[in-house]
Structure formats: C-alpha cells, structure tokens
Amino acid sequence: MVRLLTQNLLSCPSTHCTYPSNFPLSFQDVETIEIVEAEYKEEFLRGFLNRLEWAALRKSAAELGNTDLPEESPDLAQPQDVSEEILKTLHHVLLEIQVKDGAMVCPSCKHVFQIKEGIPNMLLADHELRK
Asked: Within 13 Å and on the Cβ side, how many CA atoms surround 111?
C-alpha cells in the first residue's frame, strides 16, 4: 500500500525533472483509500521527523481528505519537543492512511504513476531515466 510515509519521500525520477520541482507527487484519481490500524511506535516517529517535508505532507493528506495536521510545522529538528498529540496525528496520517488504487503525478513533467492494488508503478521509459 502507498502510505504517506512513503509518498513523502518520493520524487519523480525522470531526467526532465529535478528537485524541488519534482516533489511532492500529487495524488490524482484516487479510487480506494483504506485506513489500516498500525502499532503506535513513538520512538520510530520521533526518529523519522527530521526527514519529513511538512508542507508536502499536509498537501498530500488534504488531497486524501485528511486535514488533521496543523498548518504550522512543529520543530522537526527537535523531535523530543514534539507533543504526543502531534505524534499520534502523524502516526495516523503517515502509517494508517493507505492508497490502494489511484495515481501520483509529477508536478513538473506531469508523468502519471499508477497505483494498483497498493503498488505504485514508478517505472519510466529508457529515455526518461537519469543516467
């Protein structure tokens, strides 16, 4: 399944795209979203905070109908200071919301990466690959 944890790390691999214009991939034509309970692991979440792109995560969550994350990012560089309330919200958004069918689209080149049965097809044609 495509979780926002994974999606928040993905960018378009096309030779025509470079960071940051190829990030985040936007959700499009999402047909199936599942909420799957996941074990809450505070230590894992605190360790992952410094890898998050907050604005991109909020945008992606909103595309899937979730607006629980606050507009202002907590201090992700100080994970010990992030409240448990925010961590529990992040747990739900990052790990429990899963896209089963739909697509992710590059904001730069508009390439569509299909998601079928929870698996994103991130393959590109040879001429689109970075060398």
From this structure: 21
With beta carbons less than 8 A apart as the criterion, state whether 3 and 98 touch: yes
Stated as kind and residue range, the H or E segment containing 44 is helix 42-48
Euclidean distance between CA atoms 24 and 12, whole angstroms: 8
Cα–Cα distance, 10 to 19 (Å, whole number) = 11
Neighbours of 53 (CB within 10 A): 17
How far apart (Å, rounded) are the C-alpha atoms in residues 54 and 17?
21
Which tens digits make up the pLDDT trace of 54-71? Answer: 999 999 999 999 999 999
> What confidence tens digit (pLDDT) does each residue in 72-131 have?
999 999 999 999 999 999 999 999 999 999 999 999 999 999 999 999 999 887 766 655
Indicate the helix (H) or strand (E) that contains 2: strand 2-3
How many CA atoms lie within 13 Å of 60's alpha carbon, on the beta-carbon side?
A: 32
On whether the CB atoms of residues 11 and 19 are closer than 8 A, the answer is yes
